[in-house]
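Example (one chain per record):
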Amino acid sequence: MKVKIIAEAGLNHNGCFESAKRLIDIGKNSGADYVKFQLYDTKELYNQNFNINFKKVYKRFFKREFSFVQWNKLISYSKKKKKLNYFFLYLILKV
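Predicted structure:
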């Protein structure tokens, strides 16, 4: 069985669509088989009663969140360029 290499993109796009595309390119150019992003809904992820700095944390994550339309465009970009496979880590733990 061949070992598969995963390029961890996570949130390193910082909410910038073009940066996310570059991360796909970098993953492919590095020889990775997959690129992995983190997908979440900020409203569902954070409990405002849990954290004293809720507004600050919420804003930080919200500005890094992509819409499903944007994610679909990234998937299409990956397929169109014959780049690499992708998958998402969907964060559902409410903190």
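Caption: The mean pLDDT is 80.
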